[in-house]
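Hi D.,

Good news: the full-assembly prediction came through. Inputs first.
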Amino acid sequence: MNHPAFAIPAPAHQAAILIVDDAPASLGLLQDILQGQGYRTFVATSGERALDLAQRIQPDLILLDVMLPGLDGLETCSRLKHQAATADIPVIFVSACSDTADIVAGFEHGAADYIAKPLRLPEVCSRVRAQLQIRSASQSHTHQVKRLRMIVDGMDEGLMLLGQDGRIQYTNPASERCLGYPGRELAGRPLAELLAEPAARDFAAWFDQSDDETLARCRGTREVLLRQPDGSLRAMDLSLSPLASGEQLWVAVLHDITHHKQSENALQRAALADPLTGIANRRQFDACLEREWQRAMRNARPLSLLVLDVDHFKLYNDLLGHAAGDQCLQAIASTLQAHALRATDLAARYGGEEFVLLLPDTPHEGAAKVAEAIRADIERLRVPSPRSTTSDFVTVSVGASTIVPTQFDECRSLFQAADRAMYDAKAAGRNRVTAVGAGYAWEAMHRVLAR
Ligand SMILES: Nc1nc2c(ncn2[C@@H]2O[C@H](COP(=O)(O)OP(=O)(O)OP(=O)(O)O)[C@@H](O)[C@H]2O)c(=O)[nH]1
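Then the structure:
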């Protein structure tokens, strides 16, 4: 039977409605009405059968009579609500018992609505439609929430919610990975506590003051170091923005930049290294010399420099070829590097076949000893040098200079003195060390001694 007067547009998907009634007349009537509205209907004449069918067909709505043989409607409704598979299916009681107490009991047992018999058809249609709309809205809301949760849980970026006091209220799995702690250990902790300085101080100050103007300053993205539970640090970009909803919450996003940092560091290292030998290049040496010069001057400590040049290297190259020459330079660089024993010593290739070794806090005698040890070790490499007029093997000449820098000295004077000493060693026959003192203090001492 169709009821055009109460016709409503058929739902986008044909909703399935389970009608539970032991009275054939009312069952048939409800079935006619609902089918007329375009719904698919299923019927059950007992509570037990209704439970079974509901589990299997997962209807969108159940119309349930209260008075049923065996398991009554109230108990059936309770059981439906206690089973995970049917708990979310809305139930409308349809009953001749329409006292307030009956209606209240229906709601207490989990009903979504209550229709009193005798049935008024427009009312049945409206209530059914209303429940289906509520269910559809709630399903799409649940779907949205699930989707959002999947996105947030699957993000590579760490996402956190912070209160206005800067304490963590929510962390997604990626932020737990970034921070190195499980979510339960992060909840309630101030974010600043997990940062290294100077960001830790800034964030603590911002959130402590928490006036709008101060907080506005923590907006945006900055590079921070996160303290890991094992004490190590991880570089991240941290973006902070207020939650648009107007709640007093902040959204913090962590983006791991370890890889960028690593390649940045690798680039920096490459820019400071000599590509042939892997030891420091001239650029790094110049910066280091300037630093150590200032330190030695502040502390009035001796600073020594060795300048080392391969003997007759042109002849070596000409006879054995450039590739063999390169290998020879690599062997010399390794030998030199092996003598850079202290953390502050720096071995570098100054250019061509010329090398330097900077020895901070090293007096004249110490520098001369290191220079001689390097010279002897290179000779001991026994790299054949057939055309050399100095030796059968590759040798080096080394100039060493030492200075206790004063404000009357110039940084380049140390290099110039060592370079001159190296040329003196060449002039004196090569494969030897010449060690000299340099600078105002040295000359002053010699003036006193000469008197
Ligand atoms: N294989 C190779 N040779 C280089 C490199 N840099 C400079 N040389 C060579 O080193 C040689 C240096 O020659 P010279 O400056 O004339 O000096 P030397 O032959 O070593 O003679 P003395 O220094 O007087 O003992 C040149 O032939 C350069 O081509 C390099 O990176 N690889």
